[in-house]
């Protein structure tokens, strides 16, 4: 709920205004630092350039964050996405590494199907713990966050699986219709999730469950099924991200693949305007959030910021984004600027009501 | 009384919310030692005025003076410190803390910097004893009934040295004894010189206790009157803004129902020894097509529990349920909805609506749930349905895309009703559908119930107001101490006195509150 004043302010009050401003500022800063940053060129029918790289590198995060959006909308959270990505990548790479012809398309498709299947099982496991048994999501998925890493290492027998498979590599670094294949996949999955939630009633039902679970149950919604479903979708998204990350480097390291991606994903969802308490979710916002985070990561490297301070730099930018996004914070700032007697503005407008 | 100086004056108060002008130049004055009733329909601006006074909301214009000094509170804490205490309609306490902690939170008695728990408990016990509430103050508040929680909230507000006490519909969840107890406390406080603002929908209570009445309508001031100079019917007219004989017309509408024809054939729903341990004792009850069955009884007598068993909101552990003569197991709401049973909970906010979703989404929710998420209700169909019911139930503001939490209580109730009516149920269970809403909306809902039953819908109607139950029902089932004690046919000989007698007779625990 925006206040009258915020509404009057128009565009600036849109929930994506400030994340987009920061995104543009970061891009401008990069362009100033290195003018070639904004250039995009066509080589051998493929698009190249820093901007393309940013989008390509953010593809796995976008995927994970999409699934995370749905989970968060139900009022839950999925900490296991990084581990699931690692397991899916390890399963796929292990299968490929054991085949005589690693370049066969059939082998790669089978490998991806296997990895995807295992990920769906892991998602179902999360779903059963949360929806079936009723364990708090943060605890339920924490189990798999830890155990999944162990599972990934078990699959690889403690080694880093290295493969040499042309078709698999395409997932990470290939091109389709001049675009990097990873971008095409991210785009396709984004569209798929958008259609799945917004062209059906799934999105509204997820928001209803996240907004008021008991009221939803009494309206005849099978909340448990919906909750179960979002954890499966989240794991499926994580699996695709896992394939991308392992294809990128043609190897699967159970310890490194998707490490901490769950935290970036949660951040992307929140920057995108979806509240951690559940309810309304915004897929477009999530994509913007993921792009912002990847741009930040890339900028830190590109601008040669001292590696020792890079994490702090990232943290500062994230805090700034989150703060200026909060209506309460902006209201306070505005009040301080306009000195004359302004009436006390309600803080925490989220809970405001017009009662009887 | 008018020579004295008012302790509190609010002048030309305006407050605007997005899309709603909640208050428009409203005045209010309050004298020490009086009970001042603030009256108006839902959405008239009563709660908003109180929240402006206590600093929950800022004003858009207007001034507030307390003892002649202009004030502007930044929030309830500051208002309380200045002597303006509030007990809100919905209990605003912490169920996971003890009763004593709830009373003294933020002002715990201390010794050498540490909280003096024994002193806190002792004082809480004393305080509650003053209002004849004898409970264990170290028990968690959440373990007590809503009524007890309400009383604790009042005790807490009274204990803080208040000069102005605001009671925002304190009686809406209390039974008759508790109301009498509360009124006694109010008189006691008034005699001590405290000024009390009393917001309620119960006219009888206003005339029993209020010295002065201020009436609001649609965010505007209608006027301030001495209770003794304003007859009840005049008050109702001022609140509604039009002369209303709808209640009488309603009586004619329902008197047409002929019981003999109703009882023919198999009952739509029949409970046989249905029960749930710890919730409600096994009971038998049949509901026929087109029949309105009233469920009467005191707060906590098991009315809601009966409704929840019919709907599968709770699982029965004894007895059988038959729909259309065929035995069915209704283990969850989905199973009940499949059999065309609908249930409007009394707790609109926690068990009814999804506040964040729009009016439109809330209305189509049950229909959508029944279709499954893969078959969305086409948007055009949604808009048609929603427009139709917004108009038919005069839901205000008539904006389908407004988040439902921005609506007033009565309008929220209508949204909840609309949700179930579009599913075209054969049995509609209404749990306190008119609680906390104004006379206008109340009449509309009563008339709707009569119409629906004339159209063949069966209704299980639960209400604390006996008059309402008697006006609408063909038969009345009476609950007492979580047992269905009797069924009374609602013929000419049945009146409120007889039902009350049934409710009261044999009840040894009169006056005590089920915890």
From TrEMBL, chain A:
Compartment list: Cell membrane
Residue ranges crossing the lipid bilayer per the database entry: 47-72, 79-97, 103-125, 137-156, 176-196, 226-245, 257-276, 283-305, 311-329
Entry membrane topology: Multi-pass membrane protein
Keywords: Cell membrane, Membrane, Transmembrane, Transmembrane helix
Region forming the signal peptide: none
PANTHER family, per database record: ABC TRANSPORTER PERMEASE PROTEIN YPHD-RELATED-RELATED, GALACTOFURANOSE TRANSPORTER PERMEASE PROTEIN YTFT
Name by which UniProt lists this protein: ABC transporter permease
Annotated organism of origin: Micromonospora antibiotica
Taxonomic lineage from the root: Bacteria, Bacillati, Actinomycetota, Actinomycetes, Micromonosporales
TrEMBL record, chain B:
Membrane spanning residue stretches: none
Keywords assigned by UniProt, alphabetized: ATP-binding, Nucleotide-binding, Repeat, Transport
InterPro entries referenced in this protein's UniProt entry, alphabetically: AAA+_ATPase, ABC_carbohydrate_import_ATPase, ABC_transporter-like_ATP-bd, ABC_transporter-like_CS, P-loop_NTPase
Keyword Transport: yes
A Pfam family annotated for this UniProt entry: ABC_tran
GO MF entries: ATP binding
Record-annotated ABC transporter domain positions: 8-243, 263-506
Domain of life from the UniProt record: Bacteria
First and last residue of the signal peptide: none
Protein name per the record: Sugar ABC transporter ATP-binding protein
Species whose genome carries this gene: Micromonospora antibiotica
